[in-house]
Amino acid sequence: MRVIRVDTVQSAGGNIMWFRWRVAALAAALSFVSMSAVAQDSAASEAEVQAAVTGFVQSLNYRSGEIALPQAQAHFRLTPDYRFLDAGDARRVLEELWGNPPDDSVLGMVVPTAAPLDGDNSWAVVVTFSDEGYVTDEDAASTDYSELLSEMQAATQDENAARKSAGFETVELVGWAVPPLYDSASKKLFWAKELAFQGVDGHTLNYDVRVLGRHGYLSLNAVAGMDQLPRVKTGMQQLLPMAEFDAGARYADFNESTDKLAGYGVAALIGGGLAAKTGLLAKIGALLLAFKKFLVIGVLALLGFVGKLWSSRREREAQRPPTVG
């Protein structure tokens, strides 16, 4: 759940992470520095902004070990390699640090211990829960995921016209970064998509996990640059067995005579209309207009500073006054 628009500047972490840090830096700076002060000094140094980000990250309250998720009747048993942020801090990261719109469905966030949120290689997993009912897995073995991908790609192209008319950048679903795989024994499904956004040099990784339960499913969502695929893939596979439903709320506890059915199967979790609700694609699309959002909420005074962080090389050249003589 990250802002992923990048400019042409390169860094050790790649374009995606370069831009992510600066977006995070600006958002955090807005939380710690008054509008008037920033307006008077639009040339605030990156060191000052980074200090604000560091202060923000240090203010977060991490938990470890056994983590209960009572809203989902589920829990994590985290190893020392992972830490957990409760809903309040998770939303602070998403909304204040990364610039996402408010989302009260967030239950928390899992953060790799070795990849702090203010680091170049940071990534995190957003945790939500859907209580729409029992999702049948009868179609898992028979679903043609290549055909499903083609349908998803076509749907994405169809949606681009509306996105473009609304002022959003278009997006291309390049393909599976990790093909869908359903573990019928653990009732866990995972897949990853490779996305290409208009105006972005690097591709984006959208890694999803669904843990099926009696009353719905737990969603674990991570977004990063494609260059982080090996790291994120390994991390998500490590995290997979740490997420479980409580006794009585597990998939095997389903009671056909009393429990609600979701009315869809595994394939719909990956590629149906539910993707906009349970995945990150729609939110990523909204975040691509982060620059416009800041203008709308009245921070025109920050235009010079925002432009420094957001503008592409071409935009900077266009804005540069002509040389006289």
Polypeptide structure, described:
There is one protein chain. This protein is 37% helix and 25% strand. The chain is an alpha+beta fold and 325 residues long. The chain has an eight-stranded antiparallel beta sheet with strand order 1-4-5-6-11-10-9-8, sandwiched between helices. A three-stranded antiparallel beta sheet has the order 2-3-12, with no helix packed on it. Strands 7-13 form a two-stranded parallel sheet. A hairpin with a 4-residue loop joins strand 8 (171-183) and strand 9 (188-197). The chain is globular, with a radius of gyration of 21 Å.
Q: Tell me the total number of β-strands.
A: 13
At the first level of CATH, the class of the largest domain is: Alpha Beta
Shape: globular
The rounded distance between the terminal residues' Cα atoms is: 48 Å
State the low-pLDDT regions, or none. 1-40, 273-318
Provide a count of the helices. Answer: 12
Question: Could you state the order of secondary-structure elements as H and E?
Answer: HHHEEEEHEEEHEEEEHEEHHHHHH
CATH architecture of the largest domain: 3-Layer(aba) Sandwich
Structural class, from helix and strand content? alpha+beta
Strand content: 15-25%
Compute the gyration radius: what is it?
21 Å
CATH superfamily of the largest domain: Mog1/PsbP, alpha/beta/alpha sandwich
Provide the CATH topology of the largest domain.
Answer: Protein Transport Mog1p, Chain A
Mean pLDDT: 75
Q: How many independent structural domains? A: 2
Largest sheet: 8 strands, antiparallel
